[in-house]
């Protein structure tokens, strides 16, 4: 009895996997696998700090002078 269930179920699961693989090929899922893998490892360039050295929160020198009094 178990053979009558297991064999068709395994064939059905194999066909579903084959259909999923064919879908992935048609929709360019394997177009550039190494490019994406290498892009993860490349570090981002360091951010450019703008503003005075005294004011770490300043985005540019005009807006963030730490010595300026209110």
Q: How would you sum up this structure in a few lines?
A:
The chain is mainly alpha-helical.
How would you sum up this structure, described in words?
- 49% of the residues lie in helices and 0% in strands.
- The chain has a domain of 30 residues.
- The protein is mainly alpha-helical and 70 residues long.
- It is elongated.
The arrangement of helices and strands along the chain is HH
Cα-to-Cα separation, first versus last residue: 87 Å
Question: Fraction of residues in helices?
Answer: 40-55%
Q: Say what oligomer this is.
A: single chain
User: Which spans of ≥5 residues are poorly predicted at pLDDT below 50?
Assistant: none
Number of strands: 0
Radius of gyration: 29 Å
The fraction of residues assigned to DSSP E strands is under 5%
Query: How would you sum up the major sheet?
Result: none
Rounded mean pLDDT is 76
Shape: elongated
SSE class: mainly alpha
